[in-house]
Every structure is written in C-alpha cells, then in structure tokens.
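User: Run a structure prediction on this.
Assistant: Running it now.
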Amino acid sequence: MKTLLRYLLALVVAAYVLRQARKPGKLVGRFLVRAMNEGHSRMTDWGLAHVAIPNHVTILDVGCGGGRTVEKLAAIAVGGRVCGVDYAEGSVVASHNQNAKLIQAGRVAIQRASVSQLPFAENKFDLVTAVETQYYWPDLIGDMREILRVLKPGGKLIVIAETYKGGKYDWLKWPVMWLLRSSHLGVDDHRKLFSAAGYTNIEIFEERRKGWFCGIGSKP
C-alpha cells in the first residue's frame, strides 16, 4: 500500500512540475523560469548570432519566460525598444523582476498576452524572437501568421529551440514533450511551416553537437 501511495504521489508531483514548465505560476513557476534563464542562455546567444540586430530597432520576444532573452536583446539594441509577452502569469512576474531597471528606463515593456492574439498594431516590429516556446503554441500556422502581422515588411522571426524532431537529445526529451501535448517538428517541417505561414528568405541552422535549432523567416 505504501509503495502504491509513493507511486501515486510521484505521478502527482511529476504532473504538477510538467504543468508548471508549460505555464509557470507565481510560486513554484518562478524557480523554473530562473533555471530556464540559465539553461537556455548559451543556446540563445548562438541563435541570435544568426541575425543582424541594428542599434535602433523595435523587438518583440514571444514567450519571454524569465526575461533573460529580453535583457540580452536590450543590451544589443541599445537605442531601440524591446517588448516581451508571455501567457503565464509567473513568467510575466519573473520577466518584470529580471528587467526592472530597463522597464523603469522605458527601454523594455513586459505584458501578459497570447501569441494567438498579440496586442500590437500591424507592421510594428523589426524582429520577433521565440526561444524554447514555439512547440507550446496552440495553432502553429495561425500563430506564425499573427507574428507576421506585427512584423514590418522585411522584418524577421527567429525561432530558437533545443527540442525538435531529429535533434541530438530528441529520444530523451520527446516523451516529456508528448506529456506536455507539444508539437514535434523536424528541420524540414519547420521550413514548410515558415513557408505555409507566408515567410520568405527562410534559413535553417543546426548545432548538431549541442542539439540546437534555429529557424529564420522574413516578412515579404
């Protein structure tokens, strides 16, 4: 009986942690987003190196999580402005805390919003970033098109991830992503997705040694 209870408790805890990973809350979720800030930092740097980011640009980070990517972008585009959105309340709080000084200076803005309905006008951003978040989106093509709407003509979307079909550690991560009801796309799938959503000048990069993926597409 005790063994069964321990097993059930482990399942409950695992389910809770997985749910927090997908949509962090204010309490437990804040610890997860801190870990994500650190764990995704080098991969984010690698991905961002594939796009030119001028000094005075307007950038949106979709699924801003703990806010580390927003901070990195603000350090690059020192004369621009960076907005971050996330649908999880815990992530928004964490991102606010991570970027408090930049928000006070008027260089960064963070708000709660869904990628499916971005609270911005058309043709607003020069660059949109999405780091370790795309596979959670509820309507991949529709959400990619919503990002296309807020991009300026010639603006770019860059998707960066370490979980994708065919990646180095896919055999280990995919069971977890399946439990999270996440999409599972390979390199060719991403290329087709960018194209189907209306993007052009599509580029795909892989860092096979690390299991990292980067996809870039432009608004015509």
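Confidence is low (pLDDT under 50) at residues 1-29.
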